[in-house]
Amino acid sequence: MAYLALYRKWRPLVFEDVVEQEHVVKTLRNSINTGRIAHAYLFSGTRGTGKTTMAKIFSRAVNCLNPKDGDPCNECEICKGILNGSLLDVIEIDAASNNGVDNVRELRDEVVYTPSKAKYKVYIIDEVHMLSTGAFNALLKTLEEPPSHVIFILATTEPHKLPATILSRCQRFDFRRISVDSIAKRIEYIAGESGVDIKEDASRLIAKLSDGALRDAISILDQCISLGNKELTYEDVLKVVGLVTDTFIVEVVDNIKNQDVGKVLEAVNRLVMEGKDISQFVSELVLYYRNLLICSSVSNPEDIIDVQEDILQKMKEQLVGLERFEIMAIIKELSSLEGTLKWSAHPRILLEAALIKLCEGKVNPTELELTERIQFLEKRINEIMEKGIVVSCSDDKSDIAKESESTGNTGKVPAADVKTQEKKGNKAANIKGLEVWEDVLKELKDKGRMVLYTNLLDSKVIEISDKVVGVVFKSGCSFNKMYVSKAENLEVVESCLCKCLGKEVRVKCLDEEDTVDTSKKEEKDELVEKAQNIADKLNLNLNIIDE
Predict the structure, then answer these.
(1) From CA 144, how far away is CA 150, in angstroms rounded?
(2) With CB atoms 3.0 to 4.6 Å apart as the test, which of 15, 482, 509, 518 could cross-link to 25 if both were Cys?
(3) Do strands 197-198 and 506-511 pair parallel, antiparallel, or not at all (unpaired)?
(4) Cβ-Cβ contacts under 8 Å for 239 (sequence gap 6 or more)
(5) What's the whole-number average pLDDT of the chain?
């Protein structure tokens, strides 16, 4: 074969070259130096972490004629014979294709024969969890008491599928996922030796894509080198693996947060026309929202997530107005979509439908998320009650605050006074409708805020005070009220109202019941005010409860 794949060319030949498996290397090297060789080993771990490589190094080390501190010399007749496959004393078996009882019986009949040249006959059984129940039973007795010249090395990615009787007869070594830093360092070394200059951000991207598997990272590097460039950049890696840029993901998340359906669909169209993989894009989107969740949960997210500093700063900005339960609901929705895409003939349609659903905020929360949402609302209500004053969103100070300053009293206003002031302003008899509401709705429609526009179609507005405007929802429109009451939506409505009215106002969402029978409520407010005045004259503490 004229060309040898990089992951085969750069396979470690001694223990020292194995990346980030020091706990396994130290134990195996000491067992060789001291002569404490076990008859069966189990190497478990995810793909590409060095299980088979370690087994081959170990098979040469125990048979090497000139070992060096536990490492094989790779120069003697035995080592060369094992490396080129001419020595038959080291047998590698693929359990995925040789998983029957008859295959194991043949192996059991062969182990009785002594090695032809080497000291030990080594059987490396890869993907051992694929053996059938009968095959495991046939292997059990041989594995328990093999001849002194036989060593079994079992390798698997799923050790939980092995019977307990097999596990108890092996020395088990768990191979760890390799860190991004170690993989990136190895990638840069291999690229340099191959005559290619690879940028740091490109090597880290390859390392992140490999998900802890060095073999996968080297395969991606091999594919990138095939471009023929003497210098590999971040963009080159993106083109080869079919990924989108971080900027594109940030843009999509911003549009989902702003509920801009048009721009989200434009992004999907761009994604498809550039030939990007939709499933891979959804996976990246899930990972991005996971990083957002980490940012909202810990004070130092950079210790956990591996992203560029500018992207991390953008994530922190996106968290404003975005609650944790909303992020978790989005992650579950996208994860469900990711599983569905594998079997769908129309992945683009499913992606578009899911993103529109996210834009409209129609993700069904779980019971746990609803509980967290209720706790969040209770916390906000308690904060408002503790302050004892309604804070205006505009720069103008409320009437209560002005009165406090004029009297020199900057402390908390009694709750009864606040209630009285609210009743005087919010439910006064001189409530009148505003004539600019149609202009406001048209402004929202022109801005593309169709979801907000449709939720406000059946509403009307009233002037509560010079600085406060009420949006009144009909009976049975509690969902519309809840949607419009979200901070980011209220901000948009206030902006349009201020523009149409030509002055700063604050918006308050009301039910239709809050604006009926105003004459009776006014009479009741006057009685409450009189009662409060009498209590003040008598120096009594009057607690008025409005039911």
Answers:
(1) 12
(2) 15
(3) unpaired
(4) none
(5) 80
pLDDT of residue 384: 67
Q: What pLDDT, on the 0 to 100 scale, is given for residue 350? A: 92
What would the pLDDT profile of 442-487 be if each residue is shown by its tens digit? Answer: 888 888 888 888 888 888 888 887 788 888 888 777 778 888 888 8
Helices vs. strands in the chain: H and E counts, helices first: 25, 11
The tally of CA atoms less than 13 A away on the side-chain side of residue 312 is 13
Q: How confident is the model at residue 121 (pLDDT cuts 50, 70, 90)?
A: very high
pLDDT at 213 over 60: yes
Whether 390 has a pLDDT exceeding 70, the answer reads no
Q: Which CATH class is domain 180-241?
A: mainly alpha
According to CATH, what is the number of the domain 416-519? 3.30.300.180
pLDDT digits 0-9 by tens, 343-384:
888 889 999 999 998 888 766 555 555 666 666 666 667 666
DSSP 216-255: HHHHHHHHHHTT--SEE-HHHHHHHHTPPPHHHHHHHHHH
406: number of Cβ within 10 Å = 8
Domain boundaries, the chain: 6-174, 180-241, 246-359, 416-519
Q: Residue 198: helix, strand or coil by DSSP?
A: strand
In the block, tokens 């194991």 appear at 104
* Residue range 246-359 in CATH 1.20.272.10: yes
- Is 436 buried (19+), middle (13-18) or exposed (0-12) by CB count in 10 A? middle
Q: Which two tokens mark 127?
A: 């993907």
* Three-class HEC string of 451-474: HHHHHCCCCEEEECCCCEEEEEEC
Q: Are 355 and 349 in contact (CB under 8 A)?
A: no
Beta-bridge mates of residue 507: 469
What is the CA 36 to chain-centroid distance, rounded?
45
Tokens of 505: 């106002």
- How far apart CA 455 and CA 490 sit, in angstroms, is 12
User: What does each C-alpha distance from 233 to 38, 199, 200, 224, 396 come to in angstroms?
Assistant: 47, 6, 8, 10, 53
Residue 447's nearest CA partner among 411, 482, 484, 495 is 495
Q: Given 3.40.1440.10, 3.90.70.10, 3.10.290.10, 3.40.50.300, which CATH number is that of 6-174?
A: 3.40.50.300
pLDDT score recorded for residue 416? 41
Q: Tell me the DSSP string of 280-342.
A: HHHHHHHHHHHHHHHHHH-S-GGGT----HHHHHHHHHHTTT--HHHHHHHHHHHHHHHHHHT
Query: Which residue did the predictor score with more confidence, 496 or 420?
Result: 496
- Please tell me the predicted confidence (pLDDT) of residue 383: 66
Identify the bridge partners of residue 232 per DSSP, sorted by sequence position.
198
